[in-house]
Structures
1.
Amino acid sequence: MIIVKNLRYKYPKNKDYVIDGVSFEIREGEIFGFLGPSGAGKSTTQKILIKLLTGFEGEITYQGRSLSSYTNEFYQDIGVSFEMPISFSKLTALENLRFFQRLYRKTVDLEPLLRRVGLWEDRNKKAGEYSKGMKIRLNFVRALLNDPKFLFLDEPTNGVDPANARIMKDMILEFKRRGGTVFLTSHIMGDVDELCDRVAFIAGGKLREEGSPRDLKLKYGKRTIRVEYRENDELHTKILPMEEIKNPDFFKLLQEKEIETLHSGETTLAEIFIKVTGVRLRD
Amino acid sequence: MTNLTTLIRGEFSRLNKYGLFKANLVILLVWIFLVWFMESEALLRFIPLIFLMDSVMMTILLVGATLFYEKKEHTINSLMVTPVTENEYLMSKIITNVLNSLLTVFIISLAVYLLKGVTYKYWLVIPAVTLVSVVHTLIGIRLSYSAKDFTSLLINYMAYVFIFFLPSLFAQLNLVDQAVARFFILLPPEASGLLITSGFTVTEPWKIVFSSLYLALLSILLFRFVVKPQFIAYVMKETGV
Ligand SMILES: Nc1ncnc2c1ncn2[C@@H]1O[C@H](COP(=O)(O)OP(=O)(O)OP(=O)(O)O)[C@@H](O)[C@H]1O
Ligand SMILES: [Mg+2]
């Protein structure tokens, strides 16, 4: 749906490129996670993709056409939530949403959305009097109010309590199930793991790794099995290669010992994150 | 409803909610109070001054204040990712300010008529105030571009008033040679004052025509070559969203 080729960008006043030759593709109907250390250029990339930042080098196509050839009609189809929650502080939540709603051809019913994220009761409160988490949920609703095809979410669940984060994640997954496409950045690896079909890691202006969370975990993990068991009141750990899983000795171990934990050696996204971005950042 | 009407309605609702409309209204009441005590002779010299101040200074201040709030609350970024175009956004600012200035004209004129029975050439005053308000909305937007915060906007604004009003003042006080003073019509406030005053006195027609054309041309040039091209850079100058 979006193809980015050799994207380079530097802010007008700076001389260094924030994004320095990045290529990736966001496929229709997937949730694409864009990950990287703080200051790596994730938000910058999002702002380029939503046509807020112009003057980039390289090529970006959206549904087969160059992004720059789109008029403002482009925005009929996309929903954006920024890193920081944005609203007119002296207008109520509902007034904020209604104002934005009138700018779109197609809109959705606000009540079910607001009820879902738990803001309906507070809809007539001024946005400026909302708590941080409430503001973030309000922004999430605003991103959805034009029934977009494509969502750009910059750290959507950052600062939201676990219960509400759960609801928002469910809504993102439902959005995808209805055929929507999502570009998402987040530092919460659990969310990324749960939501994203594919992720890309950016660091030092370059893309360091790309793939589905599962493939990456296999690639960076060890093909091992780690068993912890108790014997004579002592904890023992045994690590054996995945190939030996069908080995009778392994079965015997499982049958005879008091097993406490059993893990395959694939790694976590957080560890991959550190591995692919952290080390390279220093060069 | 088109985007433009939505934006203009939004402007008015925010002017109201952010207390700017109230400030405007208080000033209006002060004018009406002053007008109350004036004789019709003085009145006809004072009213154009009210209209001039309103369509020059209030316009710059109001557009500056709204831009300042939008910048502070980052709402301008949200607007730029909706189907609203830059033209629509800028036009909504211009039209809102024109409507505001015309509202002042309407209220003052009505008050003056009811209180004193004084009338004047509305058909000249209305287009004059409209034109002046358009130019100064654009000047106000330009001044906001180079202001870091509201204080620096006020400083820019004072510098503008100082630089462009002082020559006219000097001319009035006969501190400037008449031959030189002739060219002051090229200063936007001077041309503005001339146009608005034409509704109250007898003015040479060529001056009205010249000032109108001049301000209209200035508006077009400002919009086309200054305000619009620098708009995106202004939106993007802000960080942290
Ligand atoms: N408006 C701006 N002008 C100049 N430089 C900027 C601007 N916005 C961001 N930068 C710089 O660009 C780089 C990338 O910033 P960006 O906000 O894209 O990072 P990020 O990956 O989103 O980080 P985080 O995870 O902290 O949100 C940083 O070095 C930042 O200082
Ligand atoms: Mg960011």
Note: The CA atoms of residues 137 and 173 of chain B lie 29 Å apart.
2.
Amino acid sequence: MLILHCPYCGVDADETDLHAGGEAHLKRFGPDSGDEEFENYLFMRENPKGVHFERWRHAYGCGKWFLAARCTATLEVFGTYSAQTTEPPQDIKDAISAKRPGWAWGDLS
Amino acid sequence: MSDAVSALQGRVATGDVTIADAGLQGMITLRCDLSAKSLKAACKTMGLAIPERGQISRSGDKALCWMSPDELLMLVPYADVAGSLASVEQGMKGQHYLAENVSDARALIHIDGPFARDVIAKLAPVDLHPDSFKPGMVRRTHLGQIAAAFWMRDDGAFELICFRSVAAYAFDLLAASAKAGPVSDVRAS
Ligand SMILES: [Zn+2]
């Protein structure tokens, strides 16, 4: 069972209170971008075994979207943070580095 | 005007923990910037303080529940809803906000008795240990299959709200949980 801390409510929410929203930090390119960029945005995903960044919605709680950093292999949660950010905050990256030295995910490391 | 009736029409399941329809309850959903000074002022005229995150603030027969970073639920006597809405509307004039009477869209159920915590703990994925869930806290979650929110009164009784259409389900679920006894008894049997 996955339990994630909702950064808006400040409570630990059970997986059954949440709705999964797929990969976090997807970038949609604007006008004049190419087909390949649009294809990447729509279809290409990281699907890692290990460190992953995801979108979750506190569906039965506050209803807000937030982001979570966790390990897909062990279900260990490194931290959750606001969805109003384009990349993980430094304290989340530091928490991952402490547990998984040398981690990499997309352009992040 | 039609006669308003609560969804559960006064149902009571008596036991060590009693589950009871709380009857008609005025409820107003408020959505806006919760740090707005005008909101604070409007609530103050009703004797209510803006609750802290995850809390309920009470004053007599009125209360404000924290529902999300931009949402409050105002509880007032059923007959006072129109007046309270008018106060809010006057106080928030010219601002981006929403205030809606949702009294008839919801049901309010009381859970009262020595193991009221256990009755809810069996149904919702919430840590109800006395060190974790205390009087004055509000939690939005799900109860079995349905969305619900509850808070604890100072006397240890719980108050739970759910949508009107699923009130019978919530009541039956709570009554069954109460009838089955406290968690320790369930484990032993
Ligand atoms: Zn939340």
Note: The helical segments of chain A are 35-42, 90-99.
